[in-house]
Amino acid sequence: MAERGLTIAEFRRRLSVWFSSRARDLPWRRGVDPYQTWISEVMLQQTRVDQALPYFERFVDAFPDVRALAEAELDEVLLNWEGLGYYGRARNLHLAARQVVRDHGGQIPGTYDGLKQLPGVGDYTASAVGSLAFGLPEAVLDGNVIRVLTRYDAVPDDVGRSPVRRQLRRRAQALLDPTNPGTHNEAMMEVGATVCTPRNPRCAECPIQSGCAAHLVGSQEQYPVKAQKAPVPEVQVAVAVIEREDGRLLVQRRPPSGLLGGLWEFPGGKIEAGESPAEACAREVREELGVEVHPIHEITVIRHAYSHFRIVMSAWSCRLASGVPATTNGEPCLWVTRDQLADFAFPRANRRLIELITQETD
Ligand code: SF4
After folding, report:
1. Cα 60 to the chain's mean position, in Å?
2. What whole-number distance in Å separates Cα of residue 201 and Cα of residue 215?
3. CATH architecture of 8-222
4. pTM for the model
5. What are 216-271's pLDDT values in tens digits?
6. Ligand 1 pocket check: which of 208, 210, 223, 225 to mutate, most ligand atoms within 8 Å of Cβ?
């Protein structure tokens, strides 16, 4: 099949030659360890390489193989993931490691279907791990590859639509070099990450430039086409920093599933219509822990953007007025020292609050 000046064979060849001299030296590329490939690909799903690097090294130091990960407590896994966000990824990795040990004797499955049986493994991760670690001829389609393909073919359709995704997947699969699928996939992602960047793509350095439809007419930045997103909602929350006479603070664990599942936090929740932050603090603590607190003063207001919403968090220093705290959802709550706060995994907004309240007493 002709490719606007590049045959498929030539496309593959140029990509391969370019990658052999341009590939970044990344720890998970040094030798093929399916476990490390898997961890890196899960981390890279929603995180840039430079951000993921220190987390990757810390994570594989803490859990050097699938058995170590399976034997760890979820709290420990979340603590080593803290700051990376999208905590469902860490919970699924932990569940999947236990499944690999239980059902596969500690060997990560080497088939596409076997990989997809694992919690949290979708098309992208199965293709990436399958091709990179096991040489399976499965093309990956991540944000970088989508950008390259939609520019290369000048795809005019919204890439958020399922039929367009399927079309792109078929296109990626047709271009895949079946003799070296892992390297081909990495090269496609690398072109997207380092050359075919969202803004100001460096087309002069691109190995497939002579076949690129968008480059031909200078319309690179029009692709990929994405429907306009709805504005991100903002949620107002209030949290209570309840300090006991011995200086210990009360923290509780969130339920294991759902947003930020399994992470620790200060008690609190959404501020309802007509409520002040202090009133919301007292009500939330009463509902969640069955105790009365007196909010004394506002410590700070922290703004933080999650993927689908933003929060404005009003944090209050509170005094316990009556009762013994116990969660109504069965999750643990603990009185901990300020130093011990470092041993628990907290969402980013809570961690910023912790930095503030621990500095205050230094
Ligand atoms: S020529 Fe430019 S726009 Fe086209 S794939 Fe390469 S970097 Fe992207």
Report:
1. 16
2. 10
3. Orthogonal Bundle (1.10)
4. 0.80
5. 999 999 999 999 888 889 999 999 999 999 999 999 999 988 888 899 999 999 99
6. 208
